[in-house]
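Notebook B, p. 112. Complex prediction, attempt 2.
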Amino acid sequence: MAATLDAKSRDTTPVGSKIATTLSSRLGRMFVWLLAILWTVPTLGLLISSVRPERKIKTTGWWTFFTDPQVTLENYSGVLENKVYGLPFSHFFWNTVKIAIPAAVIPIVIAAFAAYAFSWMKFKGRDWIFVLVVGLMVVPLQMCLIPLLKFFSSDFFPDSWVGVYTIWLAHAIFGMPLAIFLLKNFIGSLPSEVIEAARVDGASHLTIFRRIVLPLSVPALASLGIFQFLWVWNDLLVAKVFGGRATNQPMTAAMVDMVGNRGNDWQLLTAGAFVTMIVPLIVFLSLQRFFVRGLLAGSVKG
Amino acid sequence: MVEILKSLSVVAVGIIGFIAVLGGLYWLASQLPEPWRERARVAVFVGPALILLVGGLIIPSIVNLRLSFYTGNGLSPTKWYGLGNFRDIFTNDDNLMVLRNTVWWVLVVTAASVVIGIIIARFADKMRGEPIAKALIFLPTAISMVGAGVIWNFMYATKGNDPDKQFGLITYFWMKLDPILPGHQGPNYWLQDKRFFGIDSNWLPGVNTFFIMAVIVWIQAGFATVVISAALKGVPDDLVEAAKIDGATERQAFFKVVLPYVKGTIITVATTILIAVMKIFDIIQTMGKGGSFGTSTIANEMYEQSFTQDNKGRGAAWAVLLFLAVIPIVFINSRNQRAMREGR
């Protein structure tokens, strides 16, 4: 910004203030790069440490890696086999996969259906109910933890469902208000002529939803999907409360347990932390565009 | 291998089964005679969401409110306690500390994240390599709080007395500063230090709390940067241009024209971070050992009381308090959003 504007305003700006402006924007840019580097160092340090031999990690700083590069993958095989609650860490990775994908897909499908109904179906009290749904974004999920847990442990609810299914259900519940709100904004602003035309041609709601609304909503669904996926993948609280037995828990819970019980085994912790981060990082780096769009669309969650 | 197939099959069965159930219900609805058919179809579309919201959010919230007036162990405490839980929260020293910590958390983290976000968004704007610099700062947003906790536990790690044997970067720098700075910069176990640089005060959280806050600033600053940066790009160039022709310097134009223009966005960012910070939990579990050493916050205490101490009434009261604290912020945010919509 500074460069082009400086050129344009050459005639009106006194020389002294021009120099000050150029200088301050140069300092500003240096500051941005300094922060960018500072922001990267912690993650980089973890990544480098995770491939250094245990003896090295525990006696020297990871920055000595650059003068004394020693690489091993032992930490990774070590952490994947490391027992947490009597099971290898890799088990918890797959638990997270099992939890995260359906817990991202299911609420979005439900919310998309509801958003369609709120936009294009006629029923009594439709607008009032929508306002109520949006209002529910105020409720922190902490308000619901104990009562929901009580319900899941009661006789109405089959014991064998506690675990993955209850975690799915809880994530579906907690993600619902925001998902409906964002999708209604998007689906409701689709051109009504298209939908009316399909209706005149005799298309049913399900057909319109599947053939017209879903394909047109892909950008919104993708943004929301990535958001919900990362949120569920990174979640600790919901899984800890509703996961039941320790062996149902996701990787985050296993990681917290390792921090508590093996807090000084940095060869395990660094590699383990990187294992928990790898999928979000890939998703983030490859789909950053959608992620940013999701953030800009609605930045309130839970 | 078996494990991979098993978990993928759970995923597939879950998703396909769920969609099949929805489809089946819709088919059933379509079999009904006309006055009922349309209503049943509406019910299939909007019903699942409403069931989840009523059964999962509305009723539980009411049950939780009721629970906050009771005390005792187990999932359904039965002993009426009136406002006792709330009285305990506002009179007991440990609980007051939790409230104090949360207030500091909200103020420090929100202010720091927003200010850093504004600075980066401003100076990165249109500079060479802007997307890379912003992506690097934004990256921590994708990482779980647990992962971030481990990363920073490692940064803050301290071992022994020899500066050259430190592997925690922060401790290493700290101890290297010893010959340069006045006083003694010895090995410090940051995350267990519940005093504020040696000062004992009921009003100040410990060093450990500030060190954990830094991690959340590290995470939230990227969010603030990205959103504010997008808003800055929406400021019309003529506006800045006009201010400069009127004799404003770059700095004056930024503070008097650009910042007021994106005020709405900044409020949105601030309120969003505020609400996220109020619910801070994972990071206290990972870095503060679940709130030991005086690091607990409202959401962490809610969990600890409910599920570790088995004091569900107290836990419910903490949740109610959190709810009450969030309401005004959401109100400010929604009023702000409305103003932004009408202003443009």
